[in-house]
Design goal:
The chain has about 425 residues and is mostly beta strands. It has one helix spanning about 135; strands at about 1-10, 10-15, 20-25, 40-45, 50-55, 60-65, 70-75, 80-85, 90-100, 105-110, 115-120, 155, 160-165, 170-175, 190, 200-205, 210-215, 220-225, 230-235, 250-255, 265, 270, 305, 310-315, 325-330, 350-355, 360, 370-375, 380-385, 390-395, 400, 405-410. The strands form 10 sheets. A 4-stranded antiparallel sheet has the order 1-32-29-28, with no helix packed on it. Strand 6 and strand 7 form a beta hairpin.
Length: about 425
């Protein structure tokens, strides 16, 4: 058990070639004077790295090996998905001008059994309305960012949030509107492509972009199960902004074509007004959509993670190990007090998900900061875990982050209690 790669700047993603070659991507977020712009690195056997690409649009959220290439997800602005040909070193853009700049981004890619590229596209907002909480997020530091884009036809009820902005001005904004703009009651908005809060897919060359499902707030981790089902980790709505939602866990969903996952009016199959999501004084949030009956019924999750655990990427446990067919899921951990009231730390670990009964199980803890990606070596002897690094919010909602604190762990499966 050892830290295999050290001194990385806020890495997010790892890819393994069939021959065992390891690749890793740095996000490119310039915390603590780290260089701005994402990088893709080849990892040598001794843990040293060689740079393959740099100056990518931060945050780089995904890296997947496919057919002697690496498919790279860049958060933006705007979002982009590209392919790096490992034989020639040439990068080819597959999709560009994906939604941004907002709270969440273009996320990781998964290659489907239909040989298409699937990817999550995060919401621009916490719960549908741009508020001053967007100014608190260190990667934004401004509130005039893009509005959410519906993936299905929607009708708005005209609810308006009026807030005091950082300059002391009263500003009114409604759902699916730019900051400081208001949609009238009964406004209809047509579905668009690309859209936010969605899972989309396209051909391997980037052609024929289409929507798979809508209303999933931030599908960060995607994985195809052996039976062909697509599953996704979904980060639950936070206690922030003009539509704060209390006690909302993260979820694991099966992604079904044409389904609606409820955002921005349902969380984990429950209405946003549910007693479970009300503030301590009993206040409930109202719906912003009026045409729920025209949408598919909101999907229920396979399981709920802990509140603020921030479930991210996952790997299938190989067949030669105990618990084969289950999932190892990385939990990035809470971002309190940004995402909720101060409280004990949550996440910052790996958990096992039993895929037969969708139960959650603890795993041995290591002294990492924030695990964000996980993969098994080709011989199933090791688990690789990407550690984003030292990254915490202060009581004033500022970030204390330490450049060079990220890395990759290489952990024997015996330690993870996975040997048959």
């Amino acid at each position: 058990m050892r830290a295999f790669v050290t001194e990385l700047n806020f890495p997010t993603s790892l890819a393994l070639a069939p021959d065992g070659q390891v690749y890793v991507a740095e996000s490119g977020l310039p915390f603590d004077h780290a260089p701005k712009g994402g990088r893709v690195l080849r990892v040598n056997e001794d843990g040293s790295v060689a740079e393959l690409l740099k100056d990518l649009r931060q945050p780089v959220n995904g890296l997947v090996w496919h057919d002697n290439s690496l498919i790279i997800s860049e958060g933006g602005f705007p979002g982009r998905i590209s392919r790096l040909d490992l034989a020639t070193g040439q990068r080819h853009t597959l999709l560009d001008d994906l939604p941004g700049f907002g709270n969440y981004h273009t996320n990781m890619v998964a290659i489907g059994p239909d040989h298409k590229i699937y990817f999550g596209q995060g919401a621009m907002t916490n719960s549908g309305v741009i508020g001053t909480d967007s100014n608190d997020l260190a990667w934004l530091r401004e509130i005039k960012h893009a509005a959410d884009i519906p993936g299905y036809d929607i009708r708005l009820n005209g609810q308006v949030a009026t807030i005091t902005d950082p300059e002391g001005k009263q500003v009114s904004t409604s759902a699916f509107a730019r900051y400081g703009h208001v949609h009238a009651a009964d406004t209809r908005m047509a579905a668009q492509l690309p859209c936010t809060a969605s899972v989309m897919r396209c051909n391997l060359d980037g052609s024929d972009l289409e929507l798979v499902a809508w209303g999933i707030r931030n599908a960060y981790g995607l994985l195809f199960l052996p039976d062909g089902r697509l599953i996704a980790t979904e980060q639950g709505t936070d206690v922030r902004g003009v539509r704060p939602v209390w006690n909302c866990p993260d979820f694991l969903f099966e992604i079904k074509p044409g389904a609606w996952y409820g955002w921005p009016d349902y969380q984990g199959g429950k209405p946003i007004s549910s007693p479970a999501y009300r503030s301590p004084d009993g206040k409930a949030q109202e719906f912003v959509l009026t045409n729920h009956a025209e949408l598919p019924p909101p999907e229920s999750p396979l399981l709920a993670f802990d509140v603020n655990a921030c479930a991210v990427k996952m790997a299938l446990i190989p067949g030669k190990l105990s618990h084969a067919g289950d999932l190892l899921v990385a939990q990035f951990g809470d971002e309190r007090p940004m995402t909720g009231p101060p409280g004990p730390r949550v996440g910052r670990n790996l958990v096992r998900v039993n895929t037969r009964d969708w139960s959650l199980h603890t795993m041995p803890q290591l002294p990492w900061y924030r695990p964000i990606d996980v993969a098994f070596s080709a011989d199933a002897a090791f688990v690789y875990v990407v550690d984003f690094g030292d990254f915490e919010f202060t009581a004033k909602k500022d970030i204390i982050a330490r450049a060079g604190s990220g890395g990759v762990w290489k952990i024997p499966v015996d330690f993870m209690e996975l040997r048959s």
